[in-house]
Amino acid sequence: MAQNYQSSYQGQKNIAQSYKFNEKFEDSEEIDDDEISQHEMKVKDMQNRVSAAGNQKYNLGLNGNQDNFYSKNGGNQNQQNMGNSSYTNGIQQSINIYNQNKNKMNDTPSKINDIQINLNHSTSEKPSAICLIQFHQDSNRMELGSRAIEILEKYSDHKICFVSIVGLYRSGKSALLNKLLDIRSGEGFKVDDSVNACTMGIWMWSNPQYNENDDLYIFFIDTEGLQSVEQTQDHDIKIFTLTMLISSFFIYNSKGVIDETSISQLGLVTKLTKNIAVNEYGDKMDEYMLAQYTPKFLWILRDFSLELQDQKGRRISANQYLENCLMEDGNTKVQQSKNVRKAILSYFKDRSCLTMVKPISEEDKLKIMDRLQLEDLRSEFQKQIIALRALIFQKCTPKMFNGQYLNGRMMISMIETFINNINHKEGIPNIQSAWENIVQNECILGHQVGLQQFESQMKTLLENRETAVDFMELYTNFRAIRDNVLEKYDSIAGIREKNQYYHQYRMELINHMESREQQAFEQNEEIASTQNDLLIQDLTKGLNEKFVLKKFNHKNINEYISEFNEQLINHFLFMRLFSQLNKQISIDFQASMISMQQE
Fold first, then answer.
1. Which of 114, 199, 481, 567 is the most exposed place for a label (fewest CB within 10 A)?
2. Are strands 249-255 and 296-302 parallel, antiparallel or unpaired?
């Protein structure tokens, strides 16, 4: 009996080990080659055991059905077969889990390559690092780069997001981005092997990566290093806060383990609520409100060589390591560290951690790492770069602001407002003003596009028209044009809620269309009046010719008078009918205008 239970227990243990291996995959945890080899040896042994078990006459098989089995030797043999079945089932499940993981590992690079569809084919320009936000040190002002505006405007009809990297200066942020984007030496973000900071302001890679599954364009941005001797803490706060507000995925780059020093270096997090205004009155954000605007957070631990374990020596994932470090505030007496931990837990609800080994073993080559190709670096580092790419594409979502996905045009509006706030209004970004600026700009654009569409369709309808149109036909055409224009306006300006700007610019558009329609009706009446005059002239033409040619004399003067009276009566009847028709047209037109305004 003990042996039977042991077989069952061993099968379940195999399952548990394979699921543990699976969890490491799901957490994007580092799995080295030795561990894979050991697991493969276990799988081969399991497969041999399964094969041997399959040859047993009374084996239950691998279908897991413990109700349908046969036995010659009664209960004991049945119990043994059940034990063997559980064991072999456990082995088979373990093999299946491992094969799934192995397929994931083998498929990862190809999936990433499938996702990363560059836009090089759609542009003749060579991609490069361009200045997104420039800082003018002499005037202490920021400015949105003109080249960045041109590029972002190309994505006005597409969802976009920013993946940013922030950290201390000289910590390898730019070099990591170059390897992440597989950019050749000297062609990517600026890297310098001196001790001076080489990135000033905020820079963007001009060519976004395209995630076809989510129809999302992902821009990567590099930031000026924090705690540079060339800048003040106030400047660092502006860079940190601005980057955080515009990003969908926020990478914090540091070296080594998470300890009190690395925690304290993230002290700017505690100043976020004091450096973001909620409204025009300058009210500051609370923790709950700020969490609605913060991006997904990834802490990358560079040059990490330790084995991740908890206090009991059990292996843990990088994500669990981060959570454990953030929850250890009771072990420190430094209040600043407690505040940083609390801020990270409160602001960044979606957070994760990734460890990366040194990219190259030779110390003397670290200074020239950016000149080396990715395939020249340690294989383990290459795998971690691939894992980082996969994690970014998995977690990246379009930038959302007040419940609205932002396109390139909206992103420009938001950044411009934040920069203007920093330059003028107490030096801090204002959420409400940024949102209102986005909404107003979208309404202005919707108004402009609507006017262009209206004038184009009206020109097509009325151009080179020499004869008057029936009123109802003209009215129907105007109504169709108006409906199309307002639908176009709504598609651009109708952001989530119907705001004051929406109604303001929509009414301006309607008023313009009413004015132009009134002009068109009046022009149609003038054409009709001219046509009527010509008709009357044609009706009286014969009578006039007879009078001029003196075909009437004193003998047939009565015939002339009778014909003249008949023509005159017809003329007055027509003019009366025409006057009544015009009056009814005016009444119907005014009634239709009132009805449209009420709609």
1. 114
2. parallel
